[in-house]
Amino acid sequence: MICTLILFCNYISSQELSEIHAGFLSDLTRVIAASPNSNGSSFSGYACNTSASKTLGDVFLHWKSRFVIYGDYCANLTKAQDLIDELCAKNDNLCAEVAVSSDL
Questions:
Q1: C-alpha angle with apex 93: 87 to 94, nearest 5 degrees?
Q2: Alpha helices, DSSP H only, in the chain?
Q3: Are 50 and 58 in contact (CB under 8 A)?
Q4: CB distance 46 to 52 below 8 Å
Q5: What is the pTM of this model?
């Protein structure tokens, strides 16, 4: 039960991190493509609800608060891994489940 909860929370964090990086990359790509020095054209629907005149710095500032999630993720990752290791040492079946889950 505890291991499932830890793995679920870790999955949620991974999903959220993935979404943040995908959005950040998308915004960076759009700004670079719209810059006067690129061969790209203007775009619409900028994820930050901004115009094409935004700079790379504006993208970083927009996403800054979302990258704070790394603080929680990094602060708890070692504790979660230590708890999983401790529980696995006591239960071979649980250890096998964790091994399968980590292969996903």
A1: 35
A2: 2-34, 56-63, 69-90, 92-102
A3: yes
A4: yes
A5: 0.52
Confidence check: pLDDT of 73 > 90: no
DSSP state letter for 37: T
Task: Single out the residue of 38, 62, 60, 36 nearest to residue 49, CA to CA.
Answer: 62
Burial class of residue 88, CB neighbours in 10 A (0-12, 13-18, 19+) = middle
pLDDT in tens, 11-62: 556 777 888 889 999 999 998 888 766 554 444 334 444 445 678 899 999 9
CA distance 15 to 7: 12
Residue 1 to residue 85: CA distance in whole angstroms? 14
**Under 8 Å between Cβ of 52 and 33:** no
Token duo for residue 18 = 């993935």
